Structures are given as C-alpha cells and as structure tokens.
Automatic annotation (TrEMBL):
The lineage of its organism: Eukaryota, Metazoa, Chordata, Craniata, Vertebrata. This is E3 ubiquitin-protein ligase FANCL. One of its GO terms (biological process) is interstrand cross-link repair. Its main location: cytoplasm. Pathway: Protein modification; protein ubiquitination. It comes from Salarias fasciatus (Jewelled blenny).
Amino acid sequence: MESSLIQDNPLLLPVNKEKTVYDGFITVQERDFRMRIVLPPDRQLKKAKLHCCWRLKHLLRGYEQIVKQRLRQSTHLVSFILELKTVLEVGLKSRPECRSVPSPQYYSQLIAEMETLGWDKLLFIDTEFRTLRLRAEDSCGREHVLTVKLKSKHPAEAPDCSADLPVPLALPWTPQSTLEQLHAHFLLVLESLTQFWDVLDEIDSKTWILEPERPSRSDTMRRIAIGNNVSIKVELDPRHPKMLPECCLLGAEHAVTPLRNKLNANMHSWNPDASVLLNLRDVLEIQFPSPATHDKSSFNVECGICYSYRLEAAVPDQVCNDPRCGQPFHQACLYEWLRALPSSRQSFSIVFGECPYCGKPITVKMAAHAP
C-alpha cells in the first residue's frame, strides 16, 4: 500500500519514521498542489488533519464537507488521495480560472526578469504574481507607473499593459520579450510625450487652472482663468503640443467677444517655436492671472444658486451678460430657478427670465434632463 502511494504520488512523502506526517504535492491535470496530511499515532484517517496551500483551498471551496466525509470513511491513505484527486478534477472543470494556474517555470522566469530589470522598479505585485506596477522616470524627472498584467503562459503570451497617458499604449511583444525590454519601450513612449507634459506643466504652474481640478498625465485639456467669470478652455494635441490648440472662450458675452476677436485676428502669428503660454498671451493680448499675482478665491467660479462649483459632471457655464454682474450658474440650476418664477416665459427650448442677482434679463436652454 505504501509503495502504491509513492508510485502514484511521488511528490508526497512521509517526513517522519512513524509515517504519520506526509508533506509535498499532489498532481492533478499537470498542476501541482501543496498539501500536508497529519495522522494520529494510530494512523486512523477519520482523525487526520489536512493542510492545503491557498490554491488548493480555493479549488476545494464548496467541497469541504465531501472531503471531510471521505476522510472519515476511507480506510487507506491511498484511497483517500485518489478520491481527493477526483474532487479536484471536478473542481477544475467547474472553475475554468483555476486551470490557468502558472507552472513553477512561470515564477522562476518572473523572478529572473525582475532581477535583470531591478527590484527598485517594482512598486507593487499582487498575491497571485500576475499584476505588477513598474516605476518609470522620464528625462525631466517625472514619475510614471506602468501596470502589467501577465498571462499564465508568460512570456509566450503578450501581457496587458496600461498607464496614465494621453495616447493609446501599444508596446511591442514577442515570446522572447522580457520585462526589461517592455520597460525600455515604455521609456521611449514617455520620451515622445515629454514636450507635451512640459507645455502643461508650465501652464499648471503659471496660471490658475479651473478644470480639471486634479489633472492627471492623461488629461489634454485645461480651463485657464482669465478674469472674474472669464476663462479659456484649451485642448492640446499630445503629438503636436506646441501647435495652436483648440480654444473655447467661456464667460459673459461682453467679456468674451473682444477676446474672441483678438484670437481670430492674431492666430496667424502663432509661433510653434515659442511656448504655448506665451503664444496665448500674445494672441489674446492679455496677462493671465497667476498664483504669484492673484488668489484663486478672487475668481468667482461657484454657481450663484447652489453655491458649489461642480454639480455631478457639470460646471457653472451660464453667465449673466450684464457687465456689472457676470454671475455664473449651472445650466440645471438656472433652468429650475427661472422655471419657478411667475414672470418667466418659455419659447421652444429657451426659458426667459431675470437674473437672480441683478434682475437683468437672462436666458437659458432647457436642461437636458428636464421633462
């Protein structure tokens, strides 16, 4: 019986002379699972204790009572191991994700690749050794994170890669590729975007940014404060960041119209060799308020009705056109306010009424969610 156990399970061996403790691996569908069986001195299986690795525990989830029952009813360790393997076979068939457990070579390959790349590049690795976050630094000292999700047949299968970038990430991979080569290609991608981030870093440091509130490395838009209730939204091309960006002026019409006229008249003088911020100053003929000269609280950007800046995804983009007022509102807030006024009127999708602050005429389009 003992020889049959060793013959069928050569990786599961007794570790003491009494042969009451067996430790090692059992193999099911070419997968090795670590386990330990501790028998009482009389070697009765019904009092035995079974210790499993976390993968084996996950696979046996839902079959615990069956395993305990077979442990009590089996008369020989050989028969119990055989029945346990049968349960594992069923578990593997019912849980396809368990069949993708990497081989031992996967882990040795991963460790060897990390040794070559450098452990200082590793920011995170999950408990399954599948998801890695690698640190990368561009030539300007900006830190970036490359998330790599390895497949069970690594390196034969290309990993899934993602990063906080303004362009799609496509890194070359062959069955001979390594994490070091992947990281090197990622650095080349970062280098191609260095000028784009340089432009945005200058804008972020020298102007007041109204949107996005917390810019990420993938954001290509900035809404820059020009004055009280007046701003410009610029959208840069990551591949050609110093070219004239898409521009949209926001604010009261009396303040926006002169700026729009200057932009249209001067855009031909845009100089791709100069900084984007300097070009914007020249074509608009203004000086942008900066953290060095203005406090952000001096820009009235909150909605005059709900007193908040962001309402779900919306920002205050409706402005009173009276030069002495210029109060901004969320479209939904202003629509609900005007609709509640007895004096307001509606023509098609436009609601006409009075500004809640100055009483001057103001209009708003019907909110998209309104009935």
